[in-house]
């Protein structure tokens, strides 16, 4: 209870919680530095005695890695294997690595960056307008906010079928713009509700004063309201970026080979190698969560507001 | 003198009965103008797919049959197709119903565990101790990691040769590791593996929400109760819990909304296996549509799921509707 002393069993509880929360992350980090013979060793290797950055090279710079092993595999323009460089060095995990070399994770990292930034930008612009209409003009009464929220209620797997049909019909599958539209549509509920709560926090009188001084409504919103919720706007943007960066199912069913994102690439590694590429996958996972963790800690104060649709302020 | 100044200063636009200029700045128009983009986005990417899915579910279309639009036309001309998928779903597909039930049991079980662990952590964080801020931040880490990575990380941990079995071996004194659990290859352990993964991922959110709830409890009744000598348990049940009712409901609803969509973690952890023993409804729908390519049939299954989730979530939202709208 508040104000009471911190007891030894509180300490044990805290310790257990910390181990539970951090152990998987640390394991992933440790695995990403293990050489391939330690990935599935019995008993399991906790911290590698001979750490290596080969896993990161496999993911980020396979050319460097392969130079030691007799050159890169030869592929023609369509990505078909023409000549495997060195069959004997293949086999097991190494062979699986070789299969992915020409398509390094950079494509998926660029893809994720483009998709997440584009989706976030579109989502924020559209949501900011909607949030103003809802918070300041009560447009659509109680219906509109919950209609917008319903975009979050649909399980992606349940709505994916019509998306695939629609997108292949208009030629939007496997394009960036198509996926950006989808990313925006799935995240507008969170963005709208979060921004609405920030605008609700701001007294309406400030804008009214600006309008009294001769600003039009649009100008008052653009030059008074938005600068005043700047902090909230940044927090919302970063929060939506996290959501977009993690989006998986739509990216999985609406991309083939031109567009890729990190979660899709993770799943591809996984299914192509039966999950055996431990180190490389851990490396890609580590790389991909670095921006998330940094952003997460930056907006830690606002996370709860975003995830609870603005119902809980801090 | 122009004729404008003879109208006593009122502008032509505001005169009743005359043509009114389109004025985007008026209070009546600004609301609709601001809301239009989001409505278009949602009409195209929410309402239209929803309707398309319904019509597709009435056909027997599969990708090899060619153009979908002719198949859709047949829905109106050949009523024999109508509802055949739905009939089959209800009568001949135990896998569908068990996926629905499994999703529900995973959701309920993991939400309860998340609540209990989160509440325990939150009560610890009411006290002051050294390094509180750093520990707080560290405990939030799981929440910030993307679901696919969470799934893969726990896939590594749950391997037969993995660290979890090793620790179990240490505790049971069987260091050779022969008595380990086949976490991902047998039905019941795999189910619990999914629950543990989900609990790990989202307990921090419960912790955050419950902590903010605990912090907003008024101090005076607490102080009075302490002075009057009430026990901790009594204070918890009679003062803290009633004061946190709203917050607890919010936590459950918000998490409930997301957990019934559970997909990413399961795909990376077990792919719904072994067999179908960890297939959530999302995984089942995905397999049906994109691995078996039974598009129309998957559409029917998915349409029912959509209706169920929307109704269920709206029921859950009901108690906090007002709280969400008027949150200030």
Total E-strand runs of chain B: 0
Q: What's the overall average pLDDT of chain A, rounded?
A: 82
Helix content of chain B: 55-70%
Secondary-structure class of chain B = mainly alpha
Number of helices of chain B: 15
Largest sheet of chain A: 2 strands, antiparallel
CATH fold-type name of the domain at 93-293 in chain B: MetI-like fold
Please state the CA-atom Rg of chain A, rounded to the nearest Å.
24 Å
Strand content of chain A: under 5%
Shape verdict of chain B: globular
Topology of helices and strands:
The complex is a heterodimer of chains A (314) and B (328).
Chain A: H1 8-31, H2 54-60, H3 62-67, E1 74-75, E2 81-83, H4 92-99, H5 106-137, H6 143-153, H7 156-170, H8 176-201, H9 204-212, H10 217-228, H11 230-246, H12 249-254, H13 262-272, H14 278-298, H15 300-307
Antiparallel strand pairs in A: 1-2
Helix pairs in contact in A: 2-14, 5-8, 5-11, 5-13, 6-8, 8-11, 9-10, 11-14, 13-14
Chain B: H1 27-57, H2 68-77, H3 84-92, H4 94-124, H5 132-144, H6 147-157, H7 163-171, H8 187-215, H9 219-227, H10 232-243, H11 245-259, H12 264-269, H13 281-291, H14 295-317, H15 321-325
